[in-house]
Amino acid sequence: MKYLLDTNAILLYAQGNKELSQNAKTIMESEKCFYSMASFWEIAIKQKLGKLDNNLTVFELEDLCKNAGFIKLPTKSKYVERTKSLDFIHRDPFDRLLISIAQSENLTIITRDTIIPKYDVETVW
């Protein structure tokens, strides 16, 4: 199985936070996991708005992901186009893009988000 990391999973992993479920941590450390620049864009915006108490830079987070063996997925036009077909269960553009990527690439999203599972996408936590 292959996985896509939600932004919250990346942040909790980077911080060594105990809120990261043991299941998620085990998967992240033993399975093929991908990440998207959409997560780093979301983090940068939330840092600028003061909504995130994490001061790791995008560069530091990307280095952490690479060192952990996570694989960066390019943002493709087909992922963006596919977001138009998603129901508006919620309007978070970052989650919508991650859902589209997961659907397009048959990936399971590692997330603690309670709204993402309402879409037609596999999730674990």
Walkthrough of the structure:
The protein has a 5-stranded parallel β-sheet with strand order 3-2-1-4-5, sandwiched between helices. By secondary structure, the chain is an alpha/beta fold. The chain has one domain (2-124): Rossmann fold (3-Layer(aba) Sandwich), CATH 3.40.50.1010. The longest helix is centred in the C-terminal third of the chain and has 13 residues, at 93-105. The model has no long low-confidence stretch (mean pLDDT 96). It has helices at residues 7-15, 22-30, 37-48, 58-67, 77-82, 93-105, and strands at residues 2-5, 32-36, 71-73, 108-110, 123-124. Helices cover 47% and strands 14% of the residues. It contains 6 helices and 5 strands.
Query: Counting H and I runs of at least 4 residues, what is the number of helices?
Result: 6
Low-confidence stretches: none
In the CATH hierarchy, what is the superfamily?
5'-nuclease
Q: How many DSSP E strands?
A: 5
Share of residues in helices: 40-55%
Radius of gyration: 14 Å
Query: What does the overall shape look like?
Result: globular
The total tally of domains equals 1
End-to-end separation in angstroms reads 14 Å
What would you call the structural class? alpha/beta
What is the average per-residue confidence, as pLDDT, rounded to a whole number? 96
How large a portion of the residues is in β-strands, by DSSP E?
5-15%
Task: List the helices and strands in order.
Answer: EHHEHHEHHEE
Second-tier CATH architecture: 3-Layer(aba) Sandwich
Largest sheet: spatial strand order: 3-2-1-4-5
CATH class: Alpha Beta
